[in-house]
Amino acid sequence: MFERTTSLAGCLDAGGRDGAEGGRRLRIGEVRGTSLVQVGTWTEVHAACAAALARVCGCDPPASPRVATDRDAHRLYRIAPDQWWIATHDEALPATLEREIGAAGGAVTVLSDARVRLAIDGVAAKALLSRLVPLDLRDAAFPVGAFAQTGVHHAPALLDRIGAARYDLYVLTTYAVSTWEWTLDQALPFGYDVVVTAAADRSRPMNSTTRDSR
User: Fold this and answer.
1) Does the chain have fewer CB atoms within 10 Å around its N or its C terminus?
2) CA-based angle 143:148:151, to the nearest 5?
């Protein structure tokens, strides 16, 4: 069986760097073990497709294009009026969705190889992201659970606020290396560790050997 590889394999080996004041206030890395599934439907069968999603994922799909919903292995995003993304570590989800939705109810597309999921965690996460994305990241405008489709250095991306100081960034695989390099360049003043985390750890801070917790 083939093993999934990552376009960031060489980048992750470089390790972290101290910031301007000698500490490391960020943990930046890749989230592995994620399957990303897109479900598209049509107006006439939208309600039936949404009901099938709810049965399979155990939660109602989000009605808002700015707030994600999640349950156990699945996190759902509404990316268009008739489209959702599901980030999951359940590899059987695409086949299950195809059976439940049916060909007449919608289309299920696996995007796992088309996106790389980055994670940015730490007390300087918001300060770093303010250099990367044209979004209002204040708590009132972008609380925990919010997401937005945006861009990083002219490349499309989806930013998801997982926790108080944890954000996940989905980027096109084609632009993963350039986005990674740009992110680290903007993180230099704060200092950072490079880490790899599992999809199941999305609700917790990423483990690392951070030497300064400021």
Assistant:
1) N
2) 130
